[in-house]
Amino acid sequence: MSTQPSKNLETFPNPNPDRDYVIRMRMPEFTCLCPKTGQPDFATLYLEYVPEALCVELKSLKLYLWSFRNEGAFHEAVTNRILGDLAGLISPRFMRLTADWYVRGGIYTHVVSEHRAPGWQPKFDPPVVLPPARWEGFQGH
């Protein structure tokens, strides 16, 4: 196999740094291991961000997410770790990561974590309003 999981995230320059715009991604194949039982946990991740100078390169993001497949992590911890890694890498104006975890023991877990750059305000009138995402019907196109 030539492609391997990796913690190395890559970036590219924001093609429109003077504009506030939202990038949204749906990642339905996230897996890690339950730290208590070792059984696999599955989640759909939803990433939204308003870039500053950099954007996340998608292939490196895919390989980064794949790298969690054999790691034990609580839902809350891994969601916040991923947000922290991504926000630390690209320093976005705004970033939100939502993790919808599949059922475990009859319980569904929904974890939302956010980052906002200090003092960030949308530049345009009317300002960008970032309501909770409504992902129904979002096909990733």
From TrEMBL:
GO molecular function: preQ1 synthase activity
Residues annotated as the enzyme's active site: C34, D41
Keyword field contains Cytoplasm: yes
This protein's UniProt keywords: Cytoplasm, NADP, Oxidoreductase, Queuosine biosynthesis
This protein's GO CC annotations: cytoplasm
EC number: 1.7.1.13
Protein residues bound to substrate: V56, E57, L58, H75, E76
Record-level GO BP terms: tRNA queuosine(34) biosynthetic process
Domain of life: Bacteria
Pathway stated in the Swiss-Prot or TrEMBL entry: tRNA modification; tRNA-queuosine biosynthesis
One Pfam family cited in the UniProt record for this chain: QueF
Catalytic activity: 7-aminomethyl-7-carbaguanine + 2 NADP(+) = 7-cyano-7-carbaguanine + 2 NADPH + 3 H(+)
Annotated compartments: Cytoplasm
Enzyme superclass (EC): oxidoreductase
Main location, first listed in the record: cytoplasm
UniProt KW Magnesium keyword: no
Function statement: Catalyzes the NADPH-dependent reduction of 7-cyano-7-deazaguanine (preQ0) to 7-aminomethyl-7-deazaguanine (preQ1).
Record-linked PANTHER family: NADPH-DEPENDENT 7-CYANO-7-DEAZAGUANINE REDUCTASE (PTHR34354)
Family annotation (HAMAP family): QueF_type1 (MF_00818)
Family that this chain belongs to: Belongs to the GTP cyclohydrolase I family. QueF type 1 subfamily.
The protein's name: NADPH-dependent 7-cyano-7-deazaguanine reductase
Organism: Solimonas aquatica
Name of the gene: queF
